[in-house]
Every structure is written in structure tokens, then in C-alpha cells.
């Protein structure tokens, strides 16, 4: 995606820099702010290095979040 083609808030994208799937929460200067699907610490990503998450990628990331939560002690 280019700077002028930043994804809308709430869109699931793949950060090409880290390979992580995140939800767009806004912008921080020239960067896009993303957060993990299950919540947690946000990170900044270069909009030129991100793309919309495909259905399979989104499902895989959601499953990874559920699995991670199931391993945490109560």
C-alpha cells in the first residue's frame, strides 16, 4: 500500500516488515498504528510494506491468538 492508500481503521492487514497480522488503529505521522488481533501492544508499520490480510491469513492469526490464550494459566 502506498502512503496515499492507507487502509481504513479496523482493517486487518499484514505488516510486511514483521510478517504479523494486525488491525489498523490509526496513524502516527507517516506510519500506520497496528494492534494484534487479540489485543495487546500496538506497533508502527510502514504503509508501503503492508497489504490487506487474506482470509486464510486472518483465520490463521485468529487461531494463533486463541491457542496462545489457551496456554496461559488461569
Secondary-structure blueprint:
Layout: E1 12-15, E2 21-28, E3 31-35, E4 43-45, E5 50-52, H1 55-71
Antiparallel strand pairs: 1-2, 1-5, 2-3, 3-4
What does this structure look like?
There is one protein chain. With 74 residues, the protein is of the alpha+beta class. The chain has a single domain, classed as SH3 type barrels. The chain has 1 helix and 5 strands, in the order βββββα.
DSSP, total strands: 5
Q: Biggest β-sheet: count, sense, barrel?
A: 5 strands, antiparallel
Average predicted local confidence, pLDDT: 91
Low-confidence stretches: none
Identify the CATH class: Mainly Beta
Instruction: Give the SSE string.
Output: EEEEEH
CATH third-level topology: SH3 type barrels
Give the second-level CATH assignment, the architecture: Roll
Multimer state: single chain
Structural domains: how many: 1
Number of helices: 1
Shape: globular
What fraction, in percent, of the residue positions are helical?
10-25%
Whole-angstrom Rg: 13 Å
Secondary-structure content class? alpha+beta
- The main sheet orders its strands as 4-3-2-1-5
End-to-end separation in angstroms reads: 40 Å
Strand content: 25-35%
Amino acid at each position: 500500500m502506498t502512503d496515499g492508500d492507507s487502509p481504513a481503521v479496523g482493517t486487518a492487514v499484514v505488516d510486511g516488515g514483521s510478517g504479523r497480522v494486525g488491525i489498523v488503529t490509526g496513524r502516527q505521522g507517516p506510519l500506520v498504528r497496528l494492534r494484534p488481533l487479540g489485543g495487546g501492544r500496538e506497533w508502527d508499520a510502514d504503509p508501503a510494506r503492508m497489504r490487506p490480510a487474506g482470509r486464510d491469513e486472518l483465520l490463521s492469526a485468529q487461531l494463533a491468538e486463541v491457542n496462545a490464550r489457551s496456554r496461559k494459566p488461569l
